[in-house]
């Protein structure tokens, strides 16, 4: 497959492996642990000694131990992870919605970093960077050839440090340098607007610590502009998930009080729980109910939820709860299928373990692990059909995902490769590479237009090719 096709496919997906995390920062071990296997522990110590003494060059003991821990945890499933100092810092930045950088939402286009939107008030915003600008160099490094994660790491850094970006502005057909001083950025995980009189769109791109407060504020602003709102579109496409309480709160905004939103079940007693549409289950300690000022009309306003293959974890909880309680019409594509809960247990001041502790279940008792949520109305990405759907990775495609057998893995991978080859052959016949999908919420956003038609009672162009993908997970 061409590199251009790969880039287009993965960027269209966005982040797909967001953790549904409960933040229990503790280091307490269970008292009922069985005795350690002595022979295997001796082997581990022997290997450590051999590597330490016989390897071709000296190795750091701490690194060896960290690598051993990391290998132990990564062998469990795709979402369990050992956090060293650096990765734990990055994880905390991801859940708080704060990081040090220049302040841009990005994608990739033709091998360059594309600015989707500068975050309002950020250094990039003040420097005059615009949506659609392309970044060709970061300091002395050419962007072409970098992954999007590598580009992000080069733009992040310490507060008050400088980074030089070379910008290509297509509208003006010119390149120019910009030097930006990094500072702490607060990520905007919620966007909203009135798309036309009587109808609004609100998008949640990730469930972070600030998401619920931002979500409530945006909804209040919508109702100030449209007190008699006729319909609302909740956009969860490419939302990789995040914090459990955020998913419970967003669901609670639309559901009757005290109905179940999600339940969890695992090996340890604290993993067996039911979360309801109640402030006690979603507000943070010693904080007020962030939803208390929302209008009562929000409980009954006609609602459409947009999802796709990149909707994972916490966003699947919201979609499943609203679908099971018949509160919304789900439209789009079958979701990612991440039906597990990760708990973060701090091991030391700067290290932690993120470990899968439970499966979660929708109010009707569905486990969506390795299957996902099937929308009520299947939609294509564009009016011409799906462009990148065959390229998108899902939970069932991840190595060592929960509850799957090797025969099913082989069949699924074969089908995926056949779909990939077919798509590549179609693109090879075209004179030009496929265009990136329109920005979510734009006037060219085909699924959003169909959602609005659904709310208005007008004809909807449903997909003629998309079909439900059956669960790869074995019934338990």
Automatic annotation (TrEMBL):
Gene3D superfamilies: 2-enoyl-CoA Hydratase, Chain A, domain 1, 2.30.42.10, 3.30.750.44. This is S41 family peptidase. Pfam families: CtpB_N-like, PDZ_6, Peptidase_S41. One of its GO terms (molecular function) is endopeptidase activity. PROSITE patterns: PDZ. Keywords: Hydrolase, Protease, Serine protease, Signal. Residues 88-156 form the PDZ domain. Residues 1-27 form the signal peptide. One of its GO terms (biological process) is proteolysis. Residues 425-444 are annotated as: Disordered. Belongs to the peptidase S41A family. PANTHER family: CARBOXY-TERMINAL PROCESSING PROTEASE CTPA, TAIL-SPECIFIC PROTEASE. GO terms for cellular component: outer membrane-bounded periplasmic space. The keyword Iron-sulfur does not apply. It comes from the Bacteria. InterPro entries: ClpP/crotonase-like_dom_sf, CtpA/B_N, PDZ, PDZ_6, PDZ_sf, Peptidase_S41A, Tail-specific_protease. The keyword Hydrolase applies.
């Amino acid at each position: 497959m061409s590199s251009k096709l790969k880039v287009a496919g993965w960027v269209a997906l966005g982040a797909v492996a967001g953790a549904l995390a409960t933040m229990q920062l503790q280091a307490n071990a269970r008292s009922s642990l069985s005795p350690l296997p002595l022979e295997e522990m001796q082997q581990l110590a022997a290997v450590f000694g051999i590597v330490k003494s016989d390897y071709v060059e000296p190795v750091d003991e701490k690194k060896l131990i960290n690598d051993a821990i990391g290998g132990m945890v990564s062998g469990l499933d795709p979402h369990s992870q050992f956090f060293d100092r650096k990765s734990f810092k990055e994880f905390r930045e991801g859940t708080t919605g704060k990081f040090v950088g220049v302040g841009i939402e990005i994608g990739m286009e033709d091998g360059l970093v594309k600015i989707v939107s500068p975050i309002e008030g950020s250094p990039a915003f003040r420097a005059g960077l615009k949506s659609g600008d392309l970044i060709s160099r970061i300091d002395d490094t050419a962007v072409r050839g970098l992954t999007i994660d590598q580009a992000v790491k080069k733009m992040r850094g310490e507060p008050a440090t400088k980074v030089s970006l070379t910008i290509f502005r297509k509208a003006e057909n010119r390149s120019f340098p910009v030097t930006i001083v990094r500072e702490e950025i607060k990520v905007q995980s919620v966007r909203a607007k009135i798309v036309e009189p009587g109808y609004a769109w609100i998008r949640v791109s990730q469930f972070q610590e600030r998401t619920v407060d931002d979500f409530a504020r945006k909804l209040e602003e919508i109702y100030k502009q449209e007190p008699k709102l006729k319909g609302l579109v909740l956009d969860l496409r490419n939302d990789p998930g995040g914090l459990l309480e955020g998913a419970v709160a967003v669901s609670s905004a639309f559901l009757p009080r005290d109905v179940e939103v999600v339940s969890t079940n695992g090996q340890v007693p604290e993993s067996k729980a039911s979360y309801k549409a109640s402030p006690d289950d979603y507000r943070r300690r010693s904080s007020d109910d962030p939803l208390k000022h929302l209008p009562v009309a929000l409980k009954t306003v006609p609602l459409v939820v947009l999802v796709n293959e990149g909707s994972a974890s916490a966003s699947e909880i919201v979609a499943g709860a609203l679908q099971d309680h018949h509160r919304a019409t789900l439209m789009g594509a079958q979701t990612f299928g991440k039906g597990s809960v990760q708990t973060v247990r701090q091991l030391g001041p700067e290290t932690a373990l993120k470990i899968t502790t439970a499966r979660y279940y929708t109010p009707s008792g569905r486990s969506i692990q390795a299957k996902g949520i099937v929308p009520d109305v299947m939609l294509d990405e564009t009016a011409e059909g799906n462009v990148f759907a065959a390229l998108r990775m899902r939970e069932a495609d991840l190595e060592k995902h929960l509850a799957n057998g090797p025969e099913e893995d082989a069949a699924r991978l074969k089908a995926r490769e056949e779909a990939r080859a077919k798509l590549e052959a179609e693109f090879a016949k075209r004179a030009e590479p496929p265009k990136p999908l329109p920005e979510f919420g734009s006037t060219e956003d085909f699924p959003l237009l169909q959602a609005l038609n659904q709310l208005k009672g007008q004809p909807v162009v449903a997909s003629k090719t998309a079909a439900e993908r059956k669960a790869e997970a074995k019934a338990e």
